[in-house]
Fold these 2 entries.
Entry 1:
Amino acid sequence: MTVVKVFVNYKESILNPEAQAIQQALGRLGYDNITQLKVGKSFELTFADGMTREAIEKEVNEISDRMLANYNMENYTYEISESEDLS
Amino acid sequence: MTVVKVFVNYKESILNPEAQAIQQALGRLGYDNITQLKVGKSFELTFADGMTREAIEKEVNEISDRMLANYNMENYTYEISESEDLS
């Protein structure tokens, strides 16, 4: 079983009103040490046994491009974490 | 400058229809090696210089409890990553 975490964030050039609103609210609560705040999505995919690392990375990239991240506005990174049987 | 990543996910007992829908859609696209899929939120907070590690961890916990995670349905983890001057 292999667990892959995919992190999807807005590209730098994209304004994120949600992040702005949270940062302002935190400022009103007295947390004004935060110079920047980003909000994104995280996905945790558990792959079945018996897949090679290359096969998993290929699928993760395809899945992220096709469904998890909007190519125009977002970019993604991923981490392959627990894995008992990666060959 | 210290960057802290906060990951907010639903508790195990909470059903996440969004994750189910994505997993089913991926199955229809032919990606049926995924045995489990979780969807969560990620926050990246950049703290100003001059704060100690304890002060940052205290603020991250307070902020997460008060605003970023819904205590009843979600739990959170965090990672303190880049940091030039943590004393």
Entry 2:
Amino acid sequence: MYPTNRGILKPTNYEWSRFMKAPKYKVIINYVKEQITHGIWPVGSRLPSQRDLAKQFGVNRSTVVTALEELAADGLLEGKLGMGTIVINNTWTLMRSAPPVNWNVQVGRGTHQASLSTVQTINLAESDKSLIQLSKGELSQDLFPLEEMRSVLIKVGHELEPFGYEDPKGNRQLREAIAQYLAQKGIMVDASSILVVSGALQALHLISIGLLERESTVFLENPSYVQSLSTFQSAGMKLHGISMDTEGIIPEMIKEAHQSKNSVLYCHPNFHNPTGTLMGETRRHELLRLAETAQLPIIEDDVYGDLWLDSPPPSPIKSHDRHGNVLYLGSLSKSLNPGLRIGWVAGPEAVIDRLADLKMQTDYGSSSLSQRAAAEWLSSGLYEKHLTNVREHLKVRRNAALEALQKHLGNYAEWEKPEGGFFIWVKMNSDISLSDLYRKALAHGVLINPGRIYATQKMQNFRLSFANAPVEDLIKGIAILESLIED
Amino acid sequence: MYPTNRGILKPTNYEWSRFMKAPKYKVIINYVKEQITHGIWPVGSRLPSQRDLAKQFGVNRSTVVTALEELAADGLLEGKLGMGTIVINNTWTLMRSAPPVNWNVQVGRGTHQASLSTVQTINLAESDKSLIQLSKGELSQDLFPLEEMRSVLIKVGHELEPFGYEDPKGNRQLREAIAQYLAQKGIMVDASSILVVSGALQALHLISIGLLERESTVFLENPSYVQSLSTFQSAGMKLHGISMDTEGIIPEMIKEAHQSKNSVLYCHPNFHNPTGTLMGETRRHELLRLAETAQLPIIEDDVYGDLWLDSPPPSPIKSHDRHGNVLYLGSLSKSLNPGLRIGWVAGPEAVIDRLADLKMQTDYGSSSLSQRAAAEWLSSGLYEKHLTNVREHLKVRRNAALEALQKHLGNYAEWEKPEGGFFIWVKMNSDISLSDLYRKALAHGVLINPGRIYATQKMQNFRLSFANAPVEDLIKGIAILESLIED
């Protein structure tokens, strides 16, 4: 139901309910709640008259009454004789009237601010099943390995022994299975240098609250999906976007920008989100050298690495790391299933120890059941078999998308063929307004992610996911884009 | 493996490895790592000679060599001809040399600082199977419902349908099962007012980072197990302990201390940890009235509520809450199993929405497998059956513990009989030094939790858990305490 650019504050319920055509009384309820939440209507204030509300929302007075009755039952309102309807409670909302992250102040360092409402709208639109999802960075449910997942669970069930809290770094068997899996990528780490996390986002959360000082600089690819998250920003980090070329993030530009000790490089060498770029082998070595000489640690995010379509990618940067400069993130969310909530961090043991402490302080570890299921997937060979199948299907999807793009948008856009992952980064000709296209597409039932939510500057690109929608919808959606442009 | 007072920074590996008698070369490795981590030996610095290290640790030089070789393989050290052994890497550790929470500065508001090393030692000692665990707040593995857990998993496996990211508030079926379960306690909430979390600690983490302003005051029972956690403090909250009587926390004392708007009351009415106190019905109403009149929101922690032993406790405060002043926390960790990592928060929908957003930003939701298993436990009636069994066994354990206390410590201590939960709060006579008793007990293989880790002042109590150790160990452990006192 959710995309790769999650973890974003929702639009107000009110905006959303209007957008999604919720029942009218619900729209009114959400509107009233938000006036109270935001302190616009403090405790003791009187609501507009029922007649005025009815007029404002273009509904019958009975609809207004239904809404107010529900709000009264919630303890938020009270009808007082001769005084109309009064706000009687907002205790919790008094405590913090603004969301914890102030998106208006800091989303990037550039002059162009990512649009809050766009990110929010996309986030919720991604769970709208009536839309053609050219946006969602999640494997299609057609690719859910139902038989295998069932058999894994049943096996875990049959073999279950009593369990309780797991080891702070995660279930031992799972960590050993991860160590073996990483060894196939050339990453030689002991289970004690691995932390099991509930997905790569949690790893970023732990790193940002536990390893980085406030005001640290995070260098990252520009564009980057992290620009649409609040993970680093809410921990007080500054994001500093670095340009990319066809080989990935450009080391010289990091060198130029790297001033203080308190910096870290976050990068995404395999099938970068959103651009699909595959970082070449030389570039990987250059980044590692930079890390070594400039004491700039690297967070290497490899959640798409298993989803190569043509040939395996070069070895991870981590596989060449001899001095513990790289923290490596992986996950089953993209390649197998996000509902397991299983990912991992591999790095120097002292760092992993610290992250494990922090994980204990926030959630006492990941689900024992998920950890056991993940261990079974990895160690039984089922995961490798699943990958073979997924790659085959994703390749068909990618090729269909490329073909449809050529047919329908060949005159209006350009793109590179991605060698893996979920995304094609489509650059529209400069005379086409991306924000218009996004809006019109949404109105016509097609959801795309305009590039500006990933970048600090204006973008002529959108991110097209070929992983989620059925192939026929993929083609249909691209055709609709063509017709909208021709309009 | 872990207790109720978790989420605490570990002692240094070095201290711990010495304490636990790890192999000597491991002790040396941990020592060297920590010198580097803490910046005592910066990059480029030379280690003491092998001979000096051997002398310092009282080992052969070959043991030192083994340790240094392992550290060199980790990329931390390098032997340089004629220069000895040099530190060559500490990139990650440079970034933040102190742990994120500075325990030395702020653990309570009183004059007595909780001892860091005691909390840390206990935390790790709780996973030492050779000790008699009079400390651990976790159900004995004898009470793990193995057959039922297996059958639940197998059923979930057979009935599995494709899943992905769950709804931000958690799996719908689970939330509906929780709503029904809460209705039995008189808490009438809709599934949309419930957030599934990975245990009650995560709820506290989300509340403290998302609802409370920095510098807010958290009123809480004194003593409170929260004093041994860093959850609120690491989010910048001030803890303000309030005295208790036999009915629980004293409302008048909150009134006196309550100055600013930015305050919240955290309390634990059912079988309070660590004292076992059950809050009376009148007291519950008083607290709710206080919340209403003083606009002081309440976080009601009810993780032990299902574990009543004699008769069901009064209804939760939340069941009387008509104005959305109470956030109610529950969990399966204490009463069923902590490895599921499933708990919940019930409260005003607007607050739950906000917490759900925050949960998305930190981990994208809890495990789908655990959520499905929890839903099955709750809706099948298996959970209720399990509780009946657990209550019966816990009652036997409590009574055995009380009897042993009477027999062995009757002359040295006093206590109240707890009506539920896991703990007896044993108050030693004033001529007995609690810290001596704790240390000697540990040296003799018995782990108790001295009261001072839960309080801001000195305490003559210790927390005895009757939930974890086998009954014969429970009795044996108490007898050992007697012999230590008599010495």
